[in-house]
Specification:
Structural class: alpha+beta
Largest sheet: 7 strands, mixed
Bound molecules: flavin-adenine dinucleotide
Shape: globular
Order of helices and strands: EHEHEEHEHEEEHEEEEHEEEEEEEHEEEH
Number of strands: 22
Helix content: 10-25%
Distance between the termini: 14 Å
Number of helices: 8
């Protein structure tokens, strides 16, 4: 095969594209993969998580280079601030907090948002899971995703005040739950060295040795501008690289994992425009509150040595309140911090773990009208149609927000009370960084979905999509582990498809060597 011909082209090197590429490399029996990424390499090895970088200066540089040329994360002209390592999606999304998605963001770097994420990998509960993927099959592939992401619940074992916080939360929410859906340490994608150092999972961990072994060829700073379709089948992609010229990279299969905004855009510019494309956009409703543990929890007396704060990581542990459809229909990410994230007068050297960030995620009321669309008449800095978003919270969403605020207040009260004047706050649309639905999967090709449960785009041979955009169900839990599981499942199906296609070709040409 030539340098511009591969078995598989993967667009996007975030956790999902990397998981798909790594699975083909590990299980595909020699299929070659081109992993094409618009952004630059910002770390060594490529795709490394910024939290595992050696110095604060390295982190700052990697974050800045991931922001697609946007040098600031400060709010400007009424916009919300983007998180470091991300930048806001185009001007069309700025709403009044009610319509639009003012906090919608993306990353452009080798590793994608997977070099910046918090690595929380909870499993979806009843009601969040995709009903037409058999439960046992999903659980097996989710387990494989946990393995690929190095998920553990022991990353902060024995952290200060962790048991105490979990005991309070359990009293409030655990009644009637199955053991695996009770309050527990958050499953996190982190490896721990024998010395106890944490290495946060980025796409470098997912890819492992797939690049060095030669199965996967990485093309950084290479923008895919079009998927090539001939006779109803994907035949490769057209790319534009740093040199500026366009060229073709051929493949027998194309997998697009370019995030929930840019995956549908790539299909759109390639003339693939099923009615559901870009629609059903949903983002987790997010409510935050800050509590401080009261004296009941803080060890008293001079004999008790205060544990050292962990410095740059800012938090010492993460607890999980799993989503429960019937009793607590939210996902709780409860971060114990070593210092207050908001300036407080008269508080110095708090006990590590005593500030508790209560983050609740809730399900959006999913509607076809909430969508990302593309303005062909106005191009953005990448030269592709500008990304626009129509998005609105419904009455049902406002009821969810009220329920979340009430629940966050109740949790905070039980832990010792809200900090200062802080009240549970509903964060701007897009803040969760979990954008779903825009290339959703469906059981049938009935116009309400873009692909089947293996990500295969309806009606186009050899083209599949992945990422949070394929998730069709209302969910509250962080989606990346689910999307990685679906990508592994899609890759295994792609291997079968490529193998049977190869067998057909051999049968048709019996003398081929
Ligand atoms: C600060 C932060 C914290 C987060 N915490 C969590 C968490 O705890 N748990 C969780 O589940 N999720 C979390 N997330 C979200 C998580 O990072 C994403 O769900 C995940 O990265 C999605 O993976 P992906 O591979 O689908 O997309 P991405 O990681 O977004 O990668 C997509 C890649 O595609 C590239 N691309 C786009 N268009 C093109 C093109 N035309 N040609 C070539 N390349 C292209 C982009 O440059 C990008 O690198 C967090 C995100 C951030 C930023």
């Amino acid at each position: 095969m030539s340098a511009s011909e591969f078995d598989v082209v993967v667009v996007g090197s975030g956790p999902v594209g990397s998981a798909f590429a790594a699975t083909i490399a590990a299980e595909g029996g020699g299929f070659s993969v081109a992993l094409i990424e618009a952004g630059p390499i910002v770390s060594s090895p490529p795709g490394r998580h910024v939290k595992s970088m050696a110095s604060a200066a390295d982190v700052a540089r990697a974050q800045e280079r991931s922001q697609g040329g946007h040098s600031t994360v400060e709010p400007t002209s009424g916009r919300v601030a983007a998180r470091a390592g991300t930048y806001l999606v185009g001007d069309g999304v700025v709403g009044d907090g009610e319509t639009g998605m003012p906090a919608a963001a993306m990353s452009t770097n080798v590793g994608g948002m997977g070099s910046h994420w918090t690595c929380a990998c909870p499993s979806p509960g009843e009601g969040e899971r995709i009903p037409w993927i058999p439960r046992e099959e999903f659980e097996q592939v989710f387990h494989d995703a946990e393995h690929l992401l190095h998920v553990t619940q022991n990353a902060f074992e024995g952290w200060p005040l962790g048991d105490e916080v979990r005991a309070v939360l359990s009293t409030l929410v655990d009644e009637g739950r199955e053991p695996d859906r009770r309050v527990q340490p958050m499953p996190l994608g982190i490896s721990i060295s024998p010395e106890g150092d944490r290495y946060w999972t980025g796409p470098d961990v997912i890819l492992d040795d797939a690049i060095e072994s030669g199965f996967v060829t990485l093309f950084p700073e290479t923008l895919v501008v079009r998927i090539e379709i001939t006779d109803g089948a994907a035949r490769g992609v057209t790319v534009r690289d740093a040199v500026g010229g366009e060229r073709r990279i051929g493949a027998r299969m194309v997998f697009v994992a370019a995030d929930s905004f840019r995956t549908p855009r790539l299909l759109h510019v390639s003339g693939i425009r099923p009615p559901a494309l870009g629609r059903y956009l949903n983002d987790h409703i997010q409510v935050m509150a800050l509590a401080r543990l009261d004296d009941r929890f803080i060890p008293q007396g001079e004999a008790t040595a205060k544990p050292h704060a962990r410095g740059l990581e800012l938090f010492s542990g993460v607890n999980w309140i799993p989503y429960d459809r019937d009793t607590f229909p939210f996902h709780g990410q409860i971060m114990q911090m070593d210092a207050s994230p908001i300036p407080l007068s008269g508080v110095d050297e708090p006990w590590p773990g005593s500030f508790v960030g209560i983050g609740l995620f809730g399900c959006k009321d999913i509607r076809a009208e909430d969508r990302v669309w593309f303005d062909d008449d106005e191009l953005d800095e990448s030269g592709l149609p500008r990304i626009c978003i129509d998005y609105r919270l419904t009455e049902a969403d406002h009821a969810t927000i009220r329920g979340m605020k009430e629940a966050a207040g109740r949790l905070a009260e039980a832990l010792g009370g809200l900090v200062g004047d802080d009240r549970p706050t509903h964060l701007p649309n897009g803040n969760s960084l979990h954008y779903m639905g825009t290339v959703r999967m469906g059981e049938h090709d009935d116009g309400n979905s873009v692909c089947d449960s293996f990500g295969r785009v309806w009606g186009i041979l050899g083209l599949a999509v992945g990422g949070n955009g394929v998730i069709p169900t209302p969910t509250a839990c962080n989606p990346t582990a689910t999307s990685v599981a679906l990508a592994i499942r899609a890759a295994r199906r792609a291997i079968d498809d490529l193998t049977s296609y190869q067998a057909t070709q051999t049968e048709e040409t019996p003398h081929a060597s």
